[in-house]
Structures are given as structure tokens and as C-alpha cells.
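Researcher: I'm preparing a figure for a lab meeting and need a structural model of a single chain. I don't have an experimental structure, so a prediction will have to do for now. The sequence is pasted below. Please return the structure as C-alpha cells so I can convert it later.
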Amino acid sequence: MTNGNGATPEAAPPPQLNVLAQYIKDLSFENPNAPQSLAPQGQPPQINIQINVGANSLADTEYEVTLTIEGKAESGSQIMFSFELVYGGVFRLVNIPRENLSPMLLIECPRLLFPFAREIVANSVRDGGFPPLMLDPVDFVGLYRQNMERQAAAEAAQGRPS
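Model: Understood. Here is the structure written out cell by cell.
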């Protein structure tokens, strides 16, 4: 097959996403009111979870992506437990168009890390004396869009004269 001028078109190399490493970068679990917090409670605790994603370049095609999950369970005014997990991965992204690089790093890479981070959180809470905390799936596309909108609003606010 030719491309119209007699030359055969060269196939573009396919995009590649490789996981080179995964690791716990930081893990903290606190049960500040034990053993009282382990006693049966009248109602389920209020659980608040925050999730953030970050990425930075390590080399030309290698990036570190971090998934930060923070949580706290409270019953009334008493903290039952709190945790923070920073779970990281090193990814190699090759032949990814520049406009797709950010979504790959901030949507697809954390999506690959999340099941492992979820298990670490569940085990940490269980090992702290509570039933395992099974985090719901995360909409990384929605999280990415929220962050992009927040960033655009901040940039627009900086561009306005004071």
C-alpha cells in the first residue's frame, strides 16, 4: 500500500503505558482513643475521605504519580481513627501525544494504583481494631475535571487587576 506518492506509510508506534514500580511512600494510622474507641458504638461513625492525585517528571518518559488518601472516622466529638496514605507509582509513558499526557498521568495512572491503595487502607483500619474500611471506587475523570476547573478559576482570578 502506498500513501499516494509511491512511498509506504510508516506505522506510528503505538502508545505505551508501563508500570515500573509501586510503593507506599507514607502511611500513618492513628487510633488516639483506644481502647475506648474499640467499644461498640450506638451509631456508625461519620467517615470523611479526601483523595488527591499528583504527578511529576522523573526522566524524559518516566513519571512518578502519587495517590494521597486521607480519612477520619468520628463518633460524636471523639476521633475513632484517622489515616493518611501516600501511594506512589513510577510509570513510563511512550508515544503519548502531549495533549493526552496530563489525563494519562492524572486519570489512568491513579486508576491503576487505586485497588492497591484501597487494600492498604482496608488492612490498616482492620489492623487498628475496626472493621475493614472498603473505599468506594473513585471517579478519577470527575476529580481531574474538578481540579482543571479549579486551576482555570485560580488562573483567571490572578489575571484580573486588583
